[in-house]
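Per-record layout

source: Smittium angustum
name: glucan endo-1,3-beta-D-glucosidase
length: 368
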Amino acid sequence: MRFIHTLTFISAVSAATHFNALNYSPKRPDGSCPNVDQVRQDLAVLSQYTDTLRIYSVKDCNQGEPVLRAMEGTNWKLYLGMWVGPNDDAYEADKAELIRLSKVFDLSKNVKAVVVGSEMIYRKEQNSAQVAAKVQDMRSVLASNNLSGIPLSVGETWPYYDSNLLNAVDFAFVHVFPFWEGKTVDEATDVLFEHINAIKAAANGKRVMVGETGWPTAGDDFGVSHPSIENSQKYMNDFICRSNKEGLDYAWFQAMDAQWASTANASNVEAHWGILGPDYKTPKYPGDTWINCNVATSSSSSTSSTLSSTPPTTTTTTTPPSTTTPPTTTTPPSTTTPPTTTTPPTTSQGPTKCKKTVVVTVDRCIAY
């Protein structure tokens, strides 16, 4: 009970900067697996910013149990992920672990939704019909364990959210990264809403939310996309203010910097998406209030020129990269093949994945 009171107090002190949800990897800064006390420490810090997290797997690092144990008896909510890889092994392992956890915890108390997979269609590991079948399989699993009230979705990049997925899910959980489309920070929010509105138009009234979006705070430029604290905060401010105004739900990518994530050949940004630094405690943005919907924020460029509000002429792809890859075991997976079309990289937490994007022909390998 003392821990719960501490969470409430910390949250009350800093309610000015609030995220609807944060994508979260409980792995430690060195990549090791977490215990429940470490997860509780993370929650105590993150409670200043949100009351909802998304994880990508329950079996990877056996993270499901410590996360659920740390949330037990609190008001924390969880988007609980089922990892889907190039074969069904990871999914079946996560499914078996979910069934086991359902007998240990009352999942209806803390689990807000179950999210099947993360960018497996983008990585060309599964097609949408296969993923839709897994959603129906998971629906049967939940019903068999008295959990039919928990909604189901799929975590996938916007170009691949087709009718198979929209028909299968209860709501759409869409990943959109204007950074990986080579967009300027000034146009990024408009670009995201164009993609989301197109999916809404095809969703037959089903709710659509952003499952992942963010902007790195350090690393190399990707086309005219420039990673910096200033640009990350500007995109955060622009996106969240417009989302609040238009009633768009979202999960921001991500909670903490992942220093253990690979940065090779990926614009060196993969370790720099967190709102907290690599110590999992220190805020990366200045001040106490990061989001101010009454004041425009400034952006920074890698050059002295002002960022244009028109899309770069060098970016011909409309598919943002994906950054999401949970491990299928206690080590991050290394099974991610890059799309052969114009598909920018994705940013998600899970196993190791390597991707190629034709936008600027880069290979990116990420481990979450």
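summary: Confidence is low (pLDDT under 50) at residues 1-15, 302-322, 328-368. The first strand starts at residue 22 and ends at 23.
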